[in-house]
């Protein structure tokens, strides 16, 4: 059910207070829209999304890195610099505060930024990796992230070499065609199966297997909530679709609990 007007949102949010307070485990599942109000571009928004300006096959696949490592490395370093300049928004801060108020709240994120952690949330699983955790493309050894340096948008930058084997260091993210780290998948499905309330924030629900998690939670009986200013293909799966942004809606949920 969609809640879009001010009156609908007020009543929907107040009716969430009780299930949230009595939940033994609440999961907040976030995508790029979570960080949009911090100034980090999303992927699929029509004008501002990265995939409206770039072709994922040129930048976000192992083949792209093999073909042009400097182009791929430079693009991720450009994004890492944006993330380092960004600050957690009111939505990230509200989630961290909710985690203090509720007995057990965890975050599963598709984002490769650290804005949840910087807002103070401790229990965060990164499904798609993490910009600050580059690793060797050959032996997989973790490499120290370089100091942040200015990379112009689209400018190439040579990746560092692995201290152990000399192979090229690659961004610490999951690319198209790669598997999500096993421990992260296992934890995410486990939480989906056992939580009482599931809150999805700012994801288009188009990238699997992540997009399947809300349905798993619902299948196991969780109350499901989506926060997004737009419709998504998965709207129909949710008990509540709260129409609005992360920084608007999450502080209101915090106040209601
Ligand atoms: P998308 O860019 O696909 O979707 C962003 C969603 O956030 C859209 O549904 C927007 O309507 C919504 N949105 C925009 N601004 C918002 C705001 N202020 N508050 C709340 N929602 C807002 O991003 P993801 O769904 O995260 O994969 O994309 C999934 C994956 O595709 C990413 O993790 C990345 C990408 O390719 C990898 O890097 C492997
Ligand atoms: Zn190596």
Structure described in brief:
With about 260 residues, the chain is an alpha/beta fold. Helices cover about 40% and strands about 10% of the residues.
Notable characteristics:
257 residues, alpha/beta, seven-stranded parallel β-sheet, two-stranded antiparallel sheet, 11 helices, elongated, binds 2'-O-acetyl adenosine-5-diphosphoribose, binds zinc ion
Structure overview:
There is one protein chain. With 257 residues, the chain is an alpha/beta fold. The protein is built from 11 helices and 9 strands. The protein has helices spanning 6-22, 33-36, 50-53, 56-59, 62-67, 69-85, 90-101, 115-119, 182-194, 213-219, 246-256, and strands spanning 2-3, 26-30, 105-109, 124-126, 135-136, 169-170, 197-201, 223-227, 240-242. The strands form 2 sheets. It has a 7-stranded parallel β-sheet, with helices on both faces. Strands 5-6 form a two-stranded antiparallel sheet. Helix 10 links the parallel strand 7 (197-201) and strand 8 (223-227). Helix 7 (90-101) packs parallel to helix 11 and helix 9 (182-194) packs parallel to helix 10 (213-219). The chain is elongated. Bound molecules: 2'-O-acetyl adenosine-5-diphosphoribose and zinc ion.
